[in-house]
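#struct-help
A.M.: can someone run this one for me? Single chain, 119 residues.
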Amino acid sequence: MESYMLLEEPPMFSFFQFFILLTFFIMLGIFIYRLINVSLNMNATPTTITVTLIGKDQSVRRTQNNFTSSIFTFIFEDDKGERLSFDVGKKDYHQFVEGDKGQLTYQRKMFKSFERIKE
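D.P.: on it. Structure tokens below:
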């Protein structure tokens, strides 16, 4: 009488291995996306337009270690009514008020400067 041993083949990937690979590729995609975005911003030609500062926003983020960081945002409107939003530094945020008109210089999505026009 012959006895056969049935050997089961292990699955190619366990759920844990799949999850680790998926996480790796998501993180890699985010890194590549950010790298491309920074490269496009840096290689864009600076654009200067006349705008009005129509809004300011400050949001606070809490990190895992209970530290907080503030994000400061300006919202501009040009003569055609198009709105542009940029994250800015704390110094710039406190230097200008809503209603200021001036020359906005930016590169793609990156704020460079805002110079108020004195009327």
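A.M.: thanks! The first strand starts at residue 47 and ends at 62.
D.P.: also worth noting: The beta strands are 47-62, 68-78, 83-88, 101-107, 110-116.
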